[in-house]
Every structure is written in C-alpha cells, then in structure tokens.
Amino acid sequence: MSSSCFVYFCVFVFNRWSNTRQSMASESSSDSMSILAAKICNQINSVFTKSTSTPSPLQITVDEIASAAARCGKIFVYGVGREGLMMKALCMRLAHLGLSAHCVGDMTTPPISSSDLLIASAGPGGFSTVDAICGVAKSNGGRVLLLTAQPETGSSVKYASVVAYVAAQTMADDGDEGTSASLLPMGSVYEGALFVLFEMVVYKLVHVLGQNPDQIRSRHTNLE
User: Fold this and answer.
1) Where are the transmembrane segments (predicted)?
2) Sign of the torsion formed by the C-alpha atoms of 203, 205, 207 and 210
3) pLDDT, tens digit only, all 224 positions of the chain
4) How many domains does the chain have?
5) 223 inside domain
6) Boundaries of domain holding 123
7) Which of 8, 9, 30, 164 is the most exposed, fewest CB within 10 Å of its CB?
C-alpha cells in the first residue's frame, strides 16, 4: 500500500470511528448497556424455554458425566471455533470437580477406551473434524455425547451414543428467510447457550458428586 493510500485509509477509518461515536452518544436509553445486555441474555434464555424432547440437554449431560464418573471413566471434550472454547471452559470445571477431564488435541490427552465419555459439540449438525473425532471415539468403544442444534440432519449424529438438543440459532440457519432477525450473528446464540448450559451442568454436578467450594478451589492451578 502506497503512503498516500495509507493516509486516505486512516482518514476513512477515523471518520467512520468519529461518526460511530457520535451515533452512540445520541442513542436512546433503550440501547444502554444494561438494556442491551438484557436483550442478549433474554435471547439466550429463550433457548431453554423452547419445547424440546425430554430429557433436557441439562439432564442428559449431567447423567452422562455422572455415569462416566461412577465407572471411573475419563471425560474428553471437543468442539471447533467458539464452540471449542465453550467445551474447554467445561473441561476446566470438570477438572475442578475432581474428574479426569481432557481437551482433545492437547499433547497430554490420553487414549479413549470403553469406560470413557466424549462430549462433542456440532451446533450446525456436523463438522468434518467433529465427525472424525466422534468416529474414532466410537470405534474405540467410547461413549459419545453430541450437543447440537440440528439433531435430525447433522452428519455427526450417526456417531453419537446420545444426542442433547440445544435449540439455538447457529450458522446453519442464521439469516434464513422467514426467521426473525437476531441480535447476535452466526452461531453466537448457540455458543452463549452452551456456556449457560455448562454452568447449569456444573451447578448440578457439584451436588451429584458431593463436592464443596474448598475442594473445588483446591484443584485450581497455581501456575498462573
């Protein structure tokens, strides 16, 4: 990029930024941080108020993790992109609860066996990598819990031992004709729903596994 083009680019960015600031400053109170946060939280909350098959994704996930813990099995998690970040957040809390929890892809991840559980997420129904990982887990006798918003059409479903339906918008239906406009783009609603779901899962598991705050806190790393 020539120096003159760069200058024009900087001027353009500055003007856009300046106009955006003026626009934000003139916004009504309906667009305040607290109101916007409430709108986003309400949209994520709506995922859990929709009529879905029973048992709920919360009950399924708690039951599967508790069963794996009862048989002294390891728990593996896997997801891609922002879904993967939510899975890693769950994995950290499972480790805090004293479970043998591992993120697929880490250099220290052990092999999966018949006593173990893989929890995988494929919001739009399937990803090539999720399909592959679930296939490997299944072929080695592991139990596969799949979290998805597309339980009927997803390519990952055929590898699942059990499917937890999270009825949220994903990239698969973002912007579909006939659907109401969403505050959040692409798969953000699904990803936010995963985070909330996993917080509920951990809340339930604390009681199921008989853990207390001191025990949970004692397992947090001191290398940070």
Assistant:
1) none
2) negative
3) 566 666 566 656 656 756 656 555 555 555 788 888 998 898 899 889 876 667 999 999 999 999 999 999 999 999 999 999 999 999 999 999 999 999 999 999 999 999 999 999 998 888 999 999 999 999 999 999 999 999 988 899 999 999 999 988 887 676 665 556 677 878 889 999 999 999 999 999 999 999 999 999 999 999 99
4) 2
5) no
6) 53-218
7) 30
